[in-house]
Amino acid sequence: REEASGGLFGERAYIEFHVYARQPHDWDNAFLKPAGDLLVEVGILDADSADQLQGRVIPHKVATKAEERTEVKIWYC
Q1: Would you give the end-to-end CA distance of the chain in angstroms?
Q2: How many CA atoms does the CB half-sphere of 65 hold within 13 Å?
Q3: Helix or strand or coil: residue 67?
Q4: Which pLDDT value is given to residue 28?
Q5: What is the rounded distance in angstroms from the CA atom of residue 59 to the CA atom of residue 10?
Q6: With bands split at pLDDT 50, 70 and 90, how would you rate the model's confidence at 1?
Q7: 19: nearest Cα among 65, 58, 75
Q8: Do the bridges between strand 53-61 and strand 69-76 make them parallel or antiparallel, or are there none, so unpaired?
């Protein structure tokens, strides 16, 4: 994990989920908790506790099912 993060663990992580959906959701309804847990499990994030991670969901409305997707952006400060 240390190499993957460029030695940045220990700093606060910021994560954005850009959810592209025909019917956009807010954070509570986006079902992204499993995605955050997976990012910790595979070592992309050090932890998902509130003191180490801040996140937000940015909904985007799309017209077709083919356009639906979730993009994840992570940075450390």
Answers
A1: 17
A2: 0
A3: helix
A4: 61
A5: 29
A6: very low
A7: 58
A8: unpaired
